[in-house]
Amino acid sequence: MPIFSIHFRHGDRIAKDDEGIELPSLAEALETALLSARESLRTTSRQMPKKPLRAVIIAGERGQTY
Prior knowledge:
- The protein is an alpha+beta fold.
- It has 1 helix and 4 strands, in the order βββαβ.
- The chain is about 35% helix and about 30% strand.
- The protein starts with a strand and ends in a 7-residue tail after the last strand.
């Protein structure tokens, strides 16, 4: 099963997922990223109002991004 990493861009910083997660497809990775982004928005909008979530980056095993 492929491993996908989900990175978050807050302001000018990228919080990298160094472990990744095994998922059966890119479609599953997109769904997981969406759920993670929603959770991140809930927590970071209060904790880091000056560094909002700007982007979610999905990376494959070879570093390719989607």
